[in-house]
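Hey team,

Filing this mostly as a record. A colleague (T.K.) asked me to run one chain through the structure pipeline before their review meeting, and I want the input and output archived in the tracker in case anyone asks later how it was produced. No errors, nothing strange. Just documentation.

Input sequence:
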Amino acid sequence: MRLRPRSAPSAPDVGEPDPGHAPHAAEDRGHALRAPSPLHAFNRYEIKYLVHTSRLAALRAELRARLDLDGHAGETGYGVWSVYYDTRQLRFYWEKIEGLRFRRKLRVRHYGDRATIGDGTTVYVEIKQRVNRVTQKRRVAMPYADARLLCDGRRLAEHQPGQTAFLQEVLGLVQGLDLRPVAMTGYHREAYVGRDADLGLRVTLDHRVRGRDRDFHLGADAASTRTDTDRLRALLQERADALAEHEAIKD
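Output structure:
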């Protein structure tokens, strides 16, 4: 399948933090925002496919022939670890299952080596929402201890002035809907970016998917973690900047 833009895209999506960049300290590896704003926000279209792992080698070769490796991800990719928050009735989960045209979710996310996570490690508090076909993401970077104070302790920690409105929105969600951690996921991500006519396109290949419904500390190596070995599937996610509308054409 080829992706052909109907119009020239704007500047490419800033994507995800650089897993190998250390702007402040060693424990911050994998967490530098590419944008200088204290609130990082962007819109994009997302298309996701489930692919059997027996096809990974061929798929990887095809991607590398057509796209460039994301220079911020390196040759081997990086880990992505997330804790998701929801209501007792799993409101956000059911909104997703039912395919509501407007839906959202709250998560705390870490990029890089899970074994290095401590109170001072930079993580991202993120609201991801879907408005019709467009996915919108807003997030701020903060130390893990402050993220837990906000989402678990339901209190604001020290933060930059430009982050206040977003953090108050998160606090309002947590308090108003009585949110609590309900699931943790982790996977290994390989990232590719488009070139030439596909500039602005970003493709990620997520595999070694695992998750658990307890022991929600991002750094915990819990026995309750389950790996998706029975279905032997990987997640391929094609993501394009929301300003560049693409048409999928089968070869």
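Quick notes for T.K.: The chain is about 15% helix and 40% strand. Residues 1-14, 20-36, 245-251 have pLDDT under 50 and may be disordered.
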